[in-house]
Amino acid sequence: MLETHNREEQQAEKPSVFLSRRQFIQLGMAGLGAAWAGTFVQGQLFPAQGSSQNAAPVSFPLSELPVGATKTVTFAGVPVIVVRTAVSLKAFSLVCTHLGCLVQWQPGSMEFYCPCHDGRFDQFGEVIAGPPPVPLEEITVTVDGDRVVVGEVV
Ligand code: FES
Fold first, then answer.
1. CATH class held by domain 58-150
2. Quick one: which of 12, 85, 97, 153 has the most CB atoms within 10 Å?
3. Are the beta carbons of 147 and 60 closer than 8 angstroms?
4. What CA–CA distance (Å, rounded) separates 105 from 60?
5. 148 CA to middle of ligand 1, Å?
6. Whose alpha carbon is nearest atom 1 of ligand 1?
7. What pLDDT digit, counting tens, does each position of 97-147 carry?
């Protein structure tokens, strides 16, 4: 009799493996709060890439971009660099394709460098070192008369 009583007491003290309805709802609310907070922090740390599909083109005088020079503009809410060499005129988003840091143009080596994780891209935006999974996003750039036009759909 005494032994039976002890088993009942032990079973009564044993915590249930199932959540009560209140605990389930509290856990769900905590999860939603954590997901919202994570999204907010990510948005603050990494600049969002704007949609370049519907963005208005940006233009500037060709005289502001002599051969060998670069010019940075904002297109679709994203910093874009226009690089003019003796043989080409290219524009790239400066947002690294790894985790969204801003890359830097290095004219001496003719490369883009990402200081966050030592990512490197060549002058054509192709990955040459580090963790970036894909090339930099190339933006359409044309010359219309005496103006450089960034982002115009050709
Ligand atoms: S964010 Fe550019 S290499 Fe990681």
1. mainly beta
2. 97
3. yes
4. 20
5. 29
6. 99
7. 999 999 999 999 999 999 999 999 999 999 999 999 999 999 999 999 999
pTM score of the predicted model? 0.67
Pocket test for ligand 1, best of 46, 49, 99 (most atoms within 8 A of CB): 99
**What amino acid occupies position 19?**
L
Q: What is the pLDDT of residue 45?
A: 46
Measure 133 CA to ligand 1 centroid, in angstroms.
10
What residue spans define the domains of the chain? Answer: 2-45, 58-150
* Continuous segment of H or E residues that includes residue 113: strand 111-114
Distance from C-alpha of 66 to C-alpha of 77, rounded to nearest angstrom: 25
Does the beta carbon of 139 lie inside 6 Å of ligand 1? no
